[in-house]
Specification:
This protein is of the alpha+beta class and 337 residues long. It is 12% helix and 29% strand. It is built from seven helices and 18 strands. The strands form three sheets. Strands 1, 2, 3, 4, 7, 11, 12, 13 and 15 form a nine-stranded mixed sheet that branches.
């Protein structure tokens, strides 16, 4: 079993893999396809064990971590790994596979591929629901039918994000990094509520993002050598009550950000393949569709165009988070809680 280390804003699994949870703009669900929004700072990450007296018993038993989010706030997952010895990574949202739409389990599948390979896959912003596109991860409360979990299973029991990281089989890759490598820095080696989670992830707007096929093949990965963690999501009020800290302020809306001339992003990956989208995830009920069912006016989904000159292209050596501007925040309203 790979060691899992929870730091202040990063989770390390094993010796080389790490994941961050990046704050970002929420894009409209308006039928348009948007570029990659920026990273506006990392969400803080807290260990469930450190607050066990305030956590549900099921969380304490499972272990893991939690982050704070406002309702209808978006995030993306940033992956960090080593090119000389990559990892296979499965991502679940409410125990629904975010790549294939299948039920959450501890196996790797090739048909359809239900995992990504890191660092080849630098980030994941949402569920794989279209050709060369995803639907954005957006935080929503459980119990109202907004989450991907509710749409896929009819239940809202788990919420949060599940991460499962597999090592390659012995001998498939070097045991130590080469003296000179091209992939940039490798992360350094090994940071009482009610009975149910408060927040899950719903399906938001559409953005351009590929999910790359495994270039090595499923036989490369050692399914018996893995590390895993569940990351729960607390709303801002619960987070402050439990920890005594205020959550990060939410970013300004995407339309205002664009009006200021700040950058969006694209990736030079035209030569890379793209997995076929999940037919199951393509049918997920979006947040705006659920709003319409409930007669609720969807917030912050006014359409706008991102000028082509405002989209900054990233290469392999660019960090999307580092290339993003300093965090720009807005005041939140009571319904954000």
């Amino acid at each position: 079993m790979l060691e899992v280390v929870i730091e202040k804003d990063i989770i390390r699994i094993g010796e080389r893999f790490a994941v961050t949870f990046q704050r970002t703009l929420r894009i409209p669900d308006d039928g348009l396809t948007y570029p990659l929004p920026p990273g506006l700072g990392r969400f803080p990450i807290f260990s469930v064990e450190d607050y066990r007296d305030s956590m549900p018993a099921s969380w304490v038993e499972e272990g893991g971590a939690f982050i704070p989010m406002f309702q209808r706030e978006a995030l993306w997952l940033g992956f960090h790994g080593a090119l000389w010895k990559p990892n296979a990574v499965k991502i679940g949202v409410g125990r629904v596979n975010a790549v294939s739409g299948g039920a959450w389990d501890f196996k790797l599948r090739a048909d359809p591929q239900d995992y990504v390979v890191c660092p080849e896959q630098p980030w994941l912003d949402g569920i794989h629901s279209g050709h060369g596109t995803i639907r954005q991860f957006v935080a929503m409360p459980l119990g109202l039918g907004y989450t991907i979990e509710a749409s896929m299973t009819g239940l809202e029991t788990f919420g949060g994000v599940q991460i499962l990281v597999f090592e390659p089989k012995p001998g498939r890759f070097p045991d130590a990094p080469p003296l000179k490598r091209e992939g940039g820095a490798v992360p350094s080696a090994m940071p009482k509520l009610g009975g149910s989670p408060s927040m899950g992830l719903g399906a938001g707007g559409v953005m351009k993002q590929k999910i790359y096929p495994d270039p090595y093949g499923i036989d490369v990965w050692d399914e018996g050598n893995y590390g895993r963690i569940s990351v729960h999501i607390l709303n801002s009020a619960q987070f402050t009550e439990i920890t005594g800290f205020n959550p990060p302020a939410t970013p300004i809306d995407a339309q205002t950000y664009t009006r200021y001339g700040l950058p969006w992003f694209g990736l030079y990956d035209e030569s890379r393949g793209d997995l076929p989208p999940s037919e199951m995830l393509a049918r997920v009920k979006t947040i705006s569709a659920r709003d319409a069912e409930r007669g609720v006016a969807t917030q912050g989904d006014a359409s706008f165009q991102v000028p082509e000159g405002q989209v900054r292209k990233l290469g392999k050596k660019n960090s999307r988070a580092k290339e993003s501007p300093s965090p720009v925040v807005r005041e939140h309203s009571p319904e954000d809680e």
